[in-house]
Amino acid sequence: MTEQTTPVDDTRPAEDATSAFVPQPRSEPLPPATTEPAAPGFVVPPPPVAPPLVGEPQEPPVKVKKDRRVLRAVLRWTAATVVFAAVGASAAYGITRMERTDVPGLATEDDGRWDYPAITKPPLPSGSPGPFAEANTAGVHSADLRELLLPAPKGAKADASLRGDDGWLATKTFLAQYAEKEDREAVGQFLTDYAVRHIAARGWTSTDGTRTRIYLLQFDTASVAEDLVTNELVHYDSPRYVIAGAVTAVRDEQFPERAQVDDITRYAYAEAKPYGPEQVREAYLSAGDTIALVVQSHKGTAAAVPFQQTVVLQSQLLD
User: Fold this and answer.
1) Which residues of 220-238 are buried (b: 16+ CB within 10 A; e: fewer)?
2) Any idea what DSSP says for residue 81?
3) pTM above 0.70, yes or no
């Protein structure tokens, strides 16, 4: 802490200062100053000063030039302290008012996620429990399946071929995504054996050229849907049937486990190198009485982040 020094007011009359002053003419001589030493503990008072004669001209007292180095130093340090305090306060206030991306070193770079609209679940019919409520032992989605489809991101172009008739997709249109005829026939037979009730779909092409297709297949109960997906449609490390455009598909090791949505079983795969003109990513979701299939493809390489984002958002809608 800087020691504060009280500045000396040098505008006072000279007789108040500590230096000598110029005497004025007098009519009587001054009494001689005592030369006797002062008694211990006593201070000898200064000799009295006689007032000037009336009408006699007076010269102004001489102002003593002080050493102002101390005063200037005090003023400089005081000013510097005020400036630093003001700058620090303004900087702190500025950072609290800035957005995270405006502060250097805290900026969040674009990681490739798409700009989806606000995602809200459709309302349930009055008195109907959610698909994973304890009272819903069959795991049935009571909401309209078409309203459980993830909406397209901003700027995407809708795929009209997946709109279906009044929002319901024909089974043959769903089967057309599988590459081999034998695969289409096998999956079609499973859908008949397991008595698929409805198929709803939505697709789009995003601004970066990625093509997305989402299919929701609804069955009578959760146990039926789970048995179909785990025993007939997927292996742990690969899907059983190849999607058109893919050569081979393996377990997607890039998909973070922390992105797992409660109550939803996810099987994610990606086409392994070397792949053809485009790469395909796919994920099967087992969600109560519903199976979801999410497929994304892109020329060259299909980015992992928008695929993960799309799968997680669709999972949340089905949860």
Assistant:
1) eebebbbebbeebbbeeee
2) H
3) no
